[in-house]
Amino acid sequence: MELRYLRYFVAVAQTRNFTRAAEMLGISQPPLSQQILRLEREIGTPLLKRLTRGVELTEAGEAFYQDACQILDLTGHALEKAKGIARGVTGKLSLGFASSVAFHQDIFRLLQTFQQQFPSVTLLPREASMSSLMQDLQEGLLDAAFVRLPCETSKTFNLKLIASEKMQIVLHNAHPLSTKQEISLSQLSDTPMVMFPWEIAPSLYESIISACVRAGFQPQTGPHAPQLSSIIGMVSAGFGFALVPQSLSCVAMPDISFHPCQEASLTTDIALAWRRWDRSPTLQHLLDTLTQQLNVDT
């Protein structure tokens, strides 16, 4: 059964008149009457009572009219939904987050702006380690991911830089250097360093170790914290000092202090990563929103 049969029948049922229905549909009356007869033959029962002036619905016609209206409404909704997805204004967007990037205000300011501009897009956020994010992005389980650089595996994806931040030193307040404003890494050569596991973010891990080696010492690494964000808690518990991105200084923990690191070259970047072949309209809207935000900030 063709959808146009339903549209023709609904028009006749609503106007109760073939002539007015034909005018509303923009066709002539004879073809309309023929299509309704063809519909009735296909169903096997009359749907309309032909009167001298107009028509009335039969009992079968009344039931068919209700269902036909629902079918047409659902069809229209399905078409609009598909068109919206094609334009990137509806649908879903799965986004990954490295654990430490969630503390940077630009990330959620971007998502808030995007959600205001595209309220019918459902955001599906998921936090994971860098290695997991890269794998899920490669396998198509994520549309994009907010990652922390340096990250060697991220080079296989498109990257758009969002922010660059310095690494800061976190000390327990009982440490002799906790009253200092700026600290050099070389001053911490005798203090154990709290680190995250290498597999969480290999490139950043090696960057931190290399900075210590350039400062003249091989760091004494104690127990590992599960994530960058949990390192601060271990410093608060007295396990040693740590290097964390500047945005993590918003984390409130007892008995700790944050200090600028004299090694100015020790920095980390936040970027949005996505697959190079991905041409999703919804993803493009996110990229456009990010570009607009970065232009405003500069």
From TrEMBL:
UniProt KW keywords: DNA-binding, Transcription, Transcription regulation
GO cellular component, one term: protein-DNA complex
Molecular function GO terms recorded: DNA binding; DNA-binding transcription factor activity
UniProt cross-references to Gene3D superfamilies, sorted A to Z: Periplasmic binding protein-like II, Winged helix-like DNA-binding domain superfamily/Winged helix DNA-binding domain
UniProt keyword Nucleotide-binding, yes or no: no
Domain of life: Bacteria
Domain HTH lysR-type, residue spans: 1-58
Pfam families: HTH_1, LysR_substrate
Coiled-coil portions: none
InterPro entries: BudR_PBP2, LysR_HTH_N, LysR_subst-bd, WH-like_DNA-bd_sf, WH_DNA-bd_sf
Family per record: Belongs to the LysR transcriptional regulatory family.
Protein name: Transcriptional regulator
Organism expressing this protein natively: Pantoea alhagi
Higher taxonomy: Bacteria, Pseudomonadati, Pseudomonadota, Gammaproteobacteria, Enterobacterales
